[in-house]
Design a protein that fits this description.
The chain is an alpha/beta fold. The protein is built from 10 helices and 14 strands. Helix 7 crosses helix 10 and helix 8 packs across helix 10. The longest helix is centred in the C-terminal third of the chain and has 27 residues. The structure holds zinc ion.
């Protein structure tokens, strides 16, 4: 038996606490400014039990910034993520972007002060594709799923048919729309999307979302595959008809930056991601 609880400290900084009969793990760790609230939420669920792991699906500021605060609250907690995520989290230029994006998110949430611990972000356990994290009664297999970032990792529990997904598969934008999150490469992202879709998950924890089971799980995966391909199809048609980067960006934003998404992601962060996605797509379309 296990439970999964959204313990995120603020909308957009979702993090999920997985409690098993053995070890406990936090999936992603949210923003810096809301880490204090997240720690309190975790303590409420754990009732004195320790937090054993933080499993990072990738190194973006809204997923990884809270880890340093968790290591202060639970000194024994080990942060796990891919080798590429480790490299990014230790890189001064990436830390500067994380700090800036965290400040922006805090400002939008009306938070003036919070302690910045970005320089202490790191990964203790590097996981590669196929590596196992042993939570006692539950074993999680790391699945490399690059596409959103190079460092994206999903976690898979075969016995429970449970997929702890990452953003490469996409983010639920509401009404059956799943927003593609490819920033590194379309072909690369689709390989990962197909790999995750083929696992046969019966339950899926979606990033920024919730635990979907049964039919809603199957629909999310089907919609994720559809929208990942569909936007590329539309972009390719657009490029063939002479559309430029700004026009395609506009089209992407209209489709996917729904009011539902706006609750989860500040416009500045959305635009920053888009500034990688559209030129990347255009490059792949022109190269094909
Ligand atoms: Zn991300």
């Amino acid at each position: 038996m296990y439970s999964i609880t959204n313990v995120g400290g603020a909308p957009g900084g979702e993090a999920f606490l997985l409690v098993t009969g053995g070890k406990t793990a936090l999936i992603d760790s949210g923003f810096s400014y809301s880490a204090g609230r997240m720690a309190a939420n975790i303590k409420d669920v754990l009732q004195g039990r320790p937090l054993d792991y933080v499993l990072l699906t990738h190194s973006h500021y809204d997923h990884a910034s809270g880890s340093a605060y968790m290591q202060d609250a639970w000194p024994g907690v080990k942060v796990a993520g891919s080798a590429y995520a480790k490299k990014i989290l230790e890189k001064p230029s990436a830390r500067a972007v994380m700090r800036e994006m965290n400040d922006n998110a805090a400002r939008l949430a009306g938070v003036d002060t919070y302690e910045d611990r970005t320089d202490r972000l790191h990964i203790d356990i590097t996981v590669s594709d196929g590596d196992m994290i042993d939570l006692g009664p539950m074993k999680l297999q790391a699945i490399a799923a690059p596409g959103h970032t190079k460092c994206c990792t999903a976690f898979w529990c075969e016995e429970e048919k449970l997929l702890l997904s990452c953003e490469t598969l996409g983010v639920d934008a509401g009404n059956g729309v799943v927003m593609p999150c490819y920033m590194v490469g379309y072909g690369l992202a689709m390989q990962s999307v197909e790999k995750l879709a083929a696992l046969g998950a019966e339950k899926i924890l979606t990033p920024h979302g919730s635990l979907l089971e049964g039919r809603t799980c199957a629909e999310f995966i089907k919609n994720a595959v559809y929208w990942n391909k569909e936007f590329m199809r539309r972009a390719a048609a657009g490029v063939r008809s002479g559309k430029g980067e700004a026009e395609l960006a506009c089209e992407f934003k209209e489709l996917f930056y729904t009011p539902f998404m706006a609750e989860l992601q500040p416009e500045k962060a959305f635009d920053l991601n888009l500034s990688y996605t559209v030129p990347m797509l255009m490059k792949e379309i022109r190269g094909n």
